[in-house]
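Bench notes, afternoon.
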Amino acid sequence: MNAKKLLALFLSAMLCLSALPLSAASAADPAWEKLRMEIETYNYIIGANDIGPGYHFTDADPVLEAADRILAWGSNMVKFTAGSNPGRVFEVLGGRDFDYVFVWFRSGAPFLDGYSDEEAQADYDAFYALTARLLRTYNGTGKTFYLGHWEGDWYYLDGYDTGKQKVDDVATEGMIAWINTRQRAVDDAKRDVPHADVDVWNYLEVNRPTDAMNKGYDRVVNRVLPYTNVDYVSYSAYDSKGGSTRAIKKVIDYIYENLPEKSGVPQPRVFVGEIAEPASSYDYNDLRHCEGNLRLMVKYLSCDVRFCLYWEMYCNGTTDDGRSKGFWLVDSDGNETLLYKKLQRVFSDGREYVERFAERNGRVPTEREYRAFLLSHPAFAAARVGVFFEDLVYPFKQLVKKLGDLFQTA
């Protein structure tokens, strides 16, 4: 019997014994069924990426192996790339009970020299077909799918040129059309295909919003996002990770300021698509790596974000000398890191919190209520103290940096 079936039996027994309004409800009662589904498919906010694993320990496909490790870790969400192959989505999900599925699909930059009608039709047809197939295949399961792409600013800038201030209108208008075509296909399929207790959303990913916010440069957040009808925004957050909590909140708020309103999309509509500090930044010290990443998570979890996805289960990159960079939860020798173990405990305690909350209140916690639980969890206690002191000295560090820049230019 799997964990979800055990959970359902446990909750059924607890609700029958409780004094909740649902206590007298049978398993066939719609109110009970809705609550049970919400508990089983709850958003635990923290997850991990499974993209291009640089190592593996079995004969299985590395992505599938890493997906199994994510489930064993305790997370109910996974993020991977399907390229242009929709079948890859169903291959990764085969027999794996993820509730939140993030997919890079047809991720690329066909728009830099203009976005032709033929390119738009191909994207529309592919997104419509995949969305329709997901809705039919997983109807009634409670699963939620997020279809998106890799870091949009690296496509938009064409060459990773962070000093580039202006982007031509052809690329800008092309990217707007690219995003809106993908979005229209998802919306149309959801309109046309009957479905219940399953959803598919489209997202755009930004990764250099600080360039736009602080310098006024052309970036996806200010030149593309405001002219889209996109459901969600993913933030690959490396450009702000050295900031204070207040500075990071300013970036998240800036993304929201540029995100057009859209009815019918559950809030919050911004999430952290990837963030991490590699073990190589801590000389591969497991304790320091754990503490540093927990501090990082505290800062982003303090913002109004829907998910926070760690990069990643198995590291996908190497240093100049060929050693793994250490973007990992399971290291290249197969060891579960301290960060893996701490977050595994968070998942376990989080499930217990959600169950008890539902027993008391007849509903599941909101994302904001669950983020408050996460920030109060013992695993994050020391991290919050560390963040307090980091935030305290941050203005002075910024002042020293500015003075240093002034002396260099004098």
